[in-house]
Structure formats: structure tokens, C-alpha cells
Design a protein that fits this description.
8 helices; mainly alpha
Length: about 190
């Protein structure tokens, strides 16, 4: 075990209370669960790798919580791995690599077929790489130019009842009075 991830004499890890790191552990673990990583030893290794990276940053970034640091490191680690597998360099302008990579991961059924390949350095099986790259291309949006023109609201038949000219509410009042008389007549005939 790496001694850098052991608590110090005050019971803190990288200057943060253990409760913060426990919360960060749960968030990272839940993220990997969402990606359907079910292999417990692999899951534990991945979570610890993310937390170690976050702990290296923690002493220099005191304004951020351990969970924030872990989430950023988790996204950075996953994005770097997608960049290597998919041979698509991450850029600041293109924030979709991580999203499209996760979608390709699920479309290629990585959790079912190649779970042990997740976040592992290459080389990877050619079948896995080709499935990931094919699904990465499918995961991209097909952009279309469209225009949305504002249209007037259609309120249905209520507009015909109120657009009567000089006395707009007379017809509505008359309809309600006739409806009330109908109800009274039905009540009188049934009792």
C-alpha cells in the first residue's frame, strides 16, 4: 500500500478529514458503478487510483473539497484513457470526448465483454479497440441547421367563446347559466 494514502497522526489524509475522503470514495465508486464496472477488485483499484491522484492535488488546492478533486481527477483519467483508445486527442474546445467515449463504452458492451480493459494502459485487444472506435463515431451527433420561428398560441375553442365583440363574456355567462339549469333539471327529475 502506498504510504501517501495513509492517515497522518491527526487522522487526516492529505490535510483533509477522513469523512471527506470517504464521501469522495463513494462518489467515485458510484460513477464507476454507473459505467457498469462490477468486478470488485478492479473497482477498488480504479477508485484508489483516482483518490491517489486527488490526494496529490489536495495540499495545493485547499479551497476545493476532496469530492471535487476526486471528480475532476476521475473525469481527467477517463478522458485521457478515451483519448488513447479512440486516438482522439482531448481539446479544451471539444468537451464531448468524455461524453461520447462513455456512450461508446456502453454501446460496445465494454462492461459485459471487456471489463478488465477499462482504464488499463494499452495495448488492447483489436476487437475491443475497433468496437470502441466504431461506436464512438456512432455516438456523435448528426448536426442539422434548423430555424425556430415563433408561432402564435392556439388556445382552442375558448377563443371563439370570448371573441364576441361588444359583450365578450355574455356568451360564456349564458353557457354557464344553461349548464347550471341543466344540472338543476337533472337533479329535479331524478329526486
Amino acid at each position: 500500500m502506498n504510504p501517501a494514502i495513509l492517515p497522518d497522526a491527526t487522522g487526516k489524509l492529505a490535510g483533509r478529514p477522513l469523512e471527506e475522503w470517504n464521501a469522495a470514495y463513494v462518489k467515485v465508486e458510484n460513477y464507476f458503478h454507473a459505467l457498469r464496472i462490477r468486478n470488485k477488485p478492479l473497482l477498488g483499484q480504479l477508485v484508489l487510483r483516482v483518490l491517489e491522484r486527488a490526494q496529490r492535488r489536495a495540499p495545493n488546492e485547499l479551497d476545493r473539497s476532496a469530492t471535487q478533486l476526486a471528480a475532476e481527477e476521475m473525469d481527467r483519467l477517463v478522458t485521457e484513457w478515451f483519448s488513447e483508445v479512440l486516438q482522439a486527442p482531448p481539446t479544451k474546445a471539444d468537451q464531448t470526448l468524455s461524453t461520447r467515449g462513455r456512450l461508446a463504452l456502453l454501446l460496445a458492451d465494454m462492461p459485459g465483454k471487456w471489463q478488465e480493459q477499462f482504464l488499463r494502459p494499452g495495448p488492447w485487444p483489436e476487437e475491443f479497440v475497433s468496437a470502441m472506435r466504431e461506436n464512438f463515431l456512432l455516438a456523435g451527433p448528426d448536426f442539422q441547421i434548423s430555424k425556430m420561428m415563433p408561432r402564435p398560441f392556439d388556445l382552442g375553442p375558448i377563443t371563439t367563446l370570448t371573441n364576441l365583440g361588444k359583450i365578450p363574456y355574455f356568451r360564456i355567462a349564458l353557457i354557464w347559466v344553461l349548464f347550471a339549469l341543466l344540472l338543476v333539471a337533472v337533479f329535479y327529475l331524478t329526486h
